[in-house]
Amino acid sequence: MIECQMFRILPRRCNCTGGDSVWKQHIINGSVRQCYGQRNSCKVLNVTCPGNSACSSNGPGFSQCLCKPSWHGYKCLVKSGFPWLLIFAPVGGSTVVLIVVILLIQRRSVTPESHIKVTRMKEMITNGKKLLIVEQILLFGTLENV
């Protein structure tokens, strides 16, 4: 099996691109310098990338930090996607609190005396038609007008 390796042929006076440490082997043969087997620049140069990225060799002696999926921006600090939880958690929480407050306020405004009046009126009226009218008036809260 033939293995293809990256190599450079340069004049003798020139160093291997990226430095000799980036190549596995460099041979000087007459007036020519041959550089064989490019090494991973991230490992040789000990490149450290931010937490949301990974190092990638970008040619002899060069490296780049590539952002992991769903991360982008400067030093891969920006997370992609719509922040569903950040938007809807406060909206949902405040809605529940508002409903509870409204129910408590409405509950306090109901007095026991109005309930007694309705009970007495129902006991006094025996005709089914008038009883229906009293219930409809109670539904709309205009019991005092009767």
UniProtKB/TrEMBL annotation:
Residues 38-77 form the EGF-like domain. Disulfide bonds join C67-C76. The keyword Translocase does not apply. The chain crosses the membrane at residues 84-105. InterPro entries: ATRAID, EGF. It comes from the Eukaryota. The keyword Nucleus does not apply. Keywords: Disulfide bond, EGF-like domain, Membrane, Transmembrane, Transmembrane helix. This is EGF-like domain-containing protein. The lineage of its organism: Eukaryota, Metazoa, Cnidaria, Anthozoa, Hexacorallia.
